[in-house]
Every structure is written in C-alpha cells, then in structure tokens.
Amino acid sequence: MQLAYRVFDLPLKHVFRISRGATSVQPTFIVQLSHDDQHGYGEATTNRYYNATAAAMAAALESVRHLVESADPLQPDALLDRVSSALGGDNQFALAALDLALHDLHGKLKGEPLHRLWGWELADVPASNYTIGIDTIESMVAKLNQMPGWPVYKIKLGTPDDLAIVRELREHTSAAFRVDANCGWTVEQTIRYAPQMAELGVEFIEQPLPAADRDGAAEVRHGSALPIIADESCVVEDDVQHCIGRFDGINIKLTKCGGMAPARRMIDHAKSAGMKVMMGCMTESSVGISAIAQFLPALDYVDMDGAALIATDIADGAKVIQGRCQFPSGNGTGVSLHDGPLATDCRQIESTVDEIETQT
Ligand SMILES: [Mg+2]
C-alpha cells in the first residue's frame, strides 16, 4: 500500500466568519492510499485551533508511514488500531483522513460500497439540513432564500436576538428547523427558549451549554421541551458515556473523532443507550461528504451540506441536492478526484491561507 497526500485550497461560495476571523478559502488535507491500481481517499480540513495544520498532519502520517505501507489493506481495523495507538490521540484529524482513505480503499478492493459491507440498506435515509451561519437577520434571511427547497435548515444561534432570528426565518419557509447554540446559552435561557422554539417548528437544540457544564446539561435535559443533541460535548469515543442521561442524542464529526472506525463504535454505544445519532461535517469537499453518506442508513439526522458551500469541488462522489443524497455508483465511498489520482509519492502541503475553523 502506498501513502500520498496533498493540500487543496477549496474556494468558498461566501466569506465564512467566526469570532476568530474570516476566510474565503478552506484548505483541506487529502490522503490517498493505493494498492493494486485502486485508490482510496480521505479528507480532513486543516484547523489551527485543533493543531491540525497541514504540517502537523503530514508529520503524524510520516510517523506511521512504515506501519501503513507494510499493512494488509484488507484488514483495516487492525491497522487503524495500531496507528491510533502510535499517534496516541494527538492528531485525530490526520487519523481521520487516513481512516477514511483506508476504508474507501478496502471497499474498492472488495468491490462493494462501504454501507453494504457494513450490512446497511439505503432505504429511508434522512435528509440533510442546510446550515445558516450567524449574521444580521437580513443576511440570514438572504442565505435562506439563496438555498430554497431544503427540507431542514440548521440555524446557528448564540446572539442577543435568537428568538427574533428564528421568528423572522419562519416567515420565509415552512421547512423544519433545528438550532445550534454552539455553547452560547445558559440553563435558564435554554429551558425558557425551548417551548417557543418548538412552536416555531424547531425539532431539536444542538449544544446549548459549554461542554464542561455536565450538571447544567442534566438540568436542561430534564427541563427542556425539545430534545437536546450533544456536539462539543461529544467529540471522541470516550465522550459518549458522559452524554448518557444528559443528552437525547449525539452529533458525530468524522474528522474530530478520528474517522469511520471510532464513529461506528460511537453509533453503537449511543444507540444501545437509546440516544439519537446525527453526523455533521466541516466545510469540506465531496471526499469527506461521500464518507458521511455511507453512514446515512444508521443516522437519525445528518448535516452534510459542506460541499454545497464550496465554489469548486475537487472530487466526484456523493452529491447533496436540496438535502437529498445522490449516492455514487462506485465502491468504497465511491469517490474519485477530478484531476485523477495523486502521484503515489506526492507529499505536498503548501496552502495559500491561514486556517480557521469552518465547521457547519
Ligand atoms: Mg454544532
């Protein structure tokens, strides 16, 4: 098996703003694993906040190159256990990119899409939301109107005008809403907002409180009129047990949890505890989105609009059109790069921009 990687700069359709800055380009780290003329692809967007710069991810992969290149691609779980131990939890983003590439290659070598290898049927899969980032109310309405026809919109909140934002957006669509406070509310606010949000057609609240506030989470879950989904409180596998009894469900990000292998264990753990399962994305290409698509049969909710936010994609694979996933015909995750496979010795990590987090 040969390991190659390259950073691509994904141009965004719109400038993306968060508290730490703004960007119109999202650099993304693409891993390619090759064996017997088949190529598997994985992706992790670069993210300085999580110390997942391109240089850090390349260094992490170089430290395990000998393990990867000498391993049997038909035994992905054994290799990923060894790589995960070797990296010691220090670079989940690099691990995730490698994990996705290995699973994709495994499926391609076996001649099956991953969901089929995992025994999941594609009937009755959930539709994705489209995420509307925080902005002025007028701009949030404009963002909604630019993307009509999605069955669900996820509204980012955590402003002094949260109820006014949802009320105004409700004037412009009959689609379902979900809201994501990104840790920006208090216990009292969450319990007070929940019935009003429910009346406005909101189906759940994502991460109202800071991740560290476990007592508050239990209180909110007890008092909230709406289900509460953990995001920042459920980053890696070990977090699931702390969410039991404190949340109604969890939102898994492949990039942050370390890839498909830990994500599958998180799904099993959450479901056995009676929790709902959602999967979310970063602002990423169809490489990452096609990996999420393989999980759809196991999910209650999904946020996979990442590739809809970029102006020029780098890959063909799963497509999300007005929330509905069109599955690719290929095996593995079904993804291929527009410009063809990378050279099998490619190790290119230059980017034109500084990284900020563009998670949807
Ligand atoms: Mg979130």
TrEMBL record:
CDD domains: L-Ala-DL-Glu_epimerase
Source organism superkingdom: Bacteria
UniProt remark on cofactor binding: Binds 1 Mg(2+) ion per subunit.
Residues the record lists as binding Mg(2+): D180, E206, D231
Gene name for this UniProt entry: ykfB
SMART domains for this protein: MR_MLE
Cofactor(s) the record lists: Mg(2+)
Keywords, in A-Z order: Isomerase, Magnesium, Metal-binding
GO MF terms, alphabetically ordered: metal ion binding; racemase and epimerase activity, acting on amino acids and derivatives
Keyword Isomerase: yes
Pfam families (UniProt xref): MR_MLE_C, MR_MLE_N
Organism: Allorhodopirellula solitaria
UniProt family annotation: Belongs to the mandelate racemase/muconate lactonizing enzyme family.
Enzyme class, first EC level, given as a word: isomerase
Domain Mandelate racemase/muconate lactonizing enzyme C-terminal: 137-227
Entry protein name: Dipeptide epimerase
EC numbers, comma separated: 5.1.1.-
Active site: K156 (proton acceptor), K253 (proton acceptor)
PANTHER family hit by this protein: D-GALACTONATE DEHYDRATASE-RELATED, ENOLASE SUPERFAMILY MEMBER DDB_G0284701
